[in-house]
């Protein structure tokens, strides 16, 4: 059910008014009458008697005073009656008789496009409209059309969503129910009209039967009076004959007449009984017809109530669809934010994996160094390990004296270098353990923040931005520590290679 507050419907009436007023002829001279759209719409009742009710009711409206206001009210009433396209089609069919006097030859109503417009208006017969013409100010100028309601959004994605499909399915079901109820209402109206015609025919026949009965009663009374008069005359004649001493007169003729009168009287009685029976039947039929009329009225009221409930359900379904669409947009926004957080977490996990690989390499090198330092390992094995670890000479001597000193005191040099390497390795392990501990703490904090964000999606966006900035700062600080640890490990390895050399 569309009201006068519906903005697209107001825009439709503005466009239709411009279409109908396009190409109107101006008035002839200063004193000539001005040709208005209301004069054209009044001519529809000549060809469609159904339009007389609309025009008469609009003429009696106290709030509408101008011709343009009456034309607007006529268009709204015709749309409520679901016959706007039919009335305008009548005008187009009589184009040469009516429209040629009011429109220019190049007007839109005189062109072939008017037929296309009337075909488009046929689809409005499906829509139910409810306008309060008395409360609207139809004499004033209409507003401007807001085309932003009909433009597609730039963020619109082509293709229908499942919510749109559900909405279309619900709309089709509701429209099917509405069409079915309208068909039932039409059938009921047709049956009501037929029953009313039958009731009228029965009432006329009943009246005729009553007239026949009254005529028969009058005939019976007249026959009774004639019979009494005849009896009196017969008695007087018999007395006269007895007094004069003459022989009695034969009464054969009188008896035959009496018998005929009796037969007539019996026939009239039978006719009266038949008429009374028919009258009783007619009365019973009339009572049955009244009961059927009451039942039909009840059915019509129930159907109207169901139509109203279905319209309310349709409005509720529309509101639910709008809410679901808003929730879907919010969920999509949250999913995009969570996807970004997941990608950041993946990048951090990759960095942590690289750090762990470097730590495993350091531990492996440490074990090899310990194996080299152990006294149980033979010299051949240590040399082979040293050859694997340092294929080139780690240290070159600049002078022959330094080489001789190194050859004379190899054990003392090796001991000092091994002690230095042990201290460096312990320092590296402590730094690596502290880095791992800090990294675990940061991961725990990040997981807690992600869980909070997933639990409460409607938190402030500023907290998310601060958390991501802190995590980025921590991640920037960690690679520096890793580089320092890697540099120290490489220094330790070079020292060990020197000691082995």
From TrEMBL:
Coiled coil keyword on record: yes
Low complexity biased stretches: 407-430
Source organism per UniProt: Apis cerana
Annotated coiled-coil segments of the chain: 192-313
Region (Disordered): 369-430, 454-501
Protein name, as recorded: Protein RUFY3
InterPro entries: RUFY1-3, Run_dom, Run_dom_sf
Pfam families assigned to the protein according to its UniProt record, in alphabetical order: RUN
UniProt domain RUN: residue ranges: 3-136
UniProtKB keywords: Coiled coil
């Amino acid at each position: 059910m569309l009201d006068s507050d519906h903005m697209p419907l107001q825009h439709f009436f503005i466009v239709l008014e411009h279409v109908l007023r396009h190409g109107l002829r101006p008035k002839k001279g200063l004193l000539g009458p001005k040709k208005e759209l209301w004069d054209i719409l009044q001519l529809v009742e000549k060809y469609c008697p159904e339009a007389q009710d609309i025009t008469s009711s609009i003429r009696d409206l106290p709030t509408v005073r101008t011709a343009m206001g009456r034309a607007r009210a006529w268009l709204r009433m015709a749309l409520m009656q679901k016959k706007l396209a039919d009335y305008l089609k009548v005008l187009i069919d009589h184009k040469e008789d009516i429209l040629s006097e009011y429109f220019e030859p190049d007007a839109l109503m005189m062109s072939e496009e008017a037929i296309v417009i009337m075909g488009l208006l046929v689809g409005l017969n499906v829509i139910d409209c409810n306008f309060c013409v008395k409360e609207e100010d139809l004499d004033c100028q209409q507003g401007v059309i807001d085309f932003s309601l009909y433009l597609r959004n730039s963020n619109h994605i082509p293709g229908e969503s499942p919510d749109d499909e559900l909405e279309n399915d619900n709309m089709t079901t509701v429209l099917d129910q509405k069409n079915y109820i309208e068909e039932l209402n039409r059938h009921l109206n047709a049956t009501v009209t037929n029953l009313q015609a039958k009731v009228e025919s029965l009432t006329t026949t009943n009246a005729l039967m009553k007239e026949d009965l009254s005529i028969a009663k009058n005939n019976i009374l007249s026959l009774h009076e004639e019979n009494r008069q005849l009896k009196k005359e017969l008695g007087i004649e018999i007395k006269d004959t007895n007094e004069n001493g003459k022989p009695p007169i034969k009464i054969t003729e009188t008896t035959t007449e009496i018998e005929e009168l009796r037969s007539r009287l019996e026939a009239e009685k039978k006719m009266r009984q038949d008429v009374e029976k028919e009258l009783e039947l007619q009365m019973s039929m009339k009572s049955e017809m009244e009961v059927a009329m009451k039942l039909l009225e009840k059915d019509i009221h129930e159907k109207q109530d169901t139509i109203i409930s279905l319209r309310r359900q349709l409005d509720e379904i529309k509101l639910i669809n709008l809410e679901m669409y808003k929730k879907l947009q919010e969920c999509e926004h949250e999913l995009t934010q969570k996807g970004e957080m997941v990608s950041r977490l993946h990048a951090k996990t990759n960095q942590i994996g690289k750090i762990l690989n470097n730590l495993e390499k350091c531990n492996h090198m440490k074990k090899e160094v310990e194996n080299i330092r152990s006294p149980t390992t033979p010299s051949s094995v240590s040399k082979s390990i040293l050859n694997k670890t340092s294929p080139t000479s780690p240290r070159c001597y600049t002078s022959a004296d330094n080489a001789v000193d190194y050859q004379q005191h190899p054990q003392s040099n090796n001991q000092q270098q091994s002690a230095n390497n042990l201290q460096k390795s312990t320092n590296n392990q402590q730094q690596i353990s502290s880095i791992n501990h800090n990294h675990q703490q940061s991961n725990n904090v990040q997981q807690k923040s992600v869980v909070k964000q997933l639990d409460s999606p409607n938190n402030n966006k500023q907290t998310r931005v601060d958390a991501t900035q802190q995590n980025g700062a921590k991640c920037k600080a960690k690679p520096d520590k890793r580089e320092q640890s890697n540099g120290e490990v490489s220094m330790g390895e070079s020292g060990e290679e020197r000691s082995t050399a």
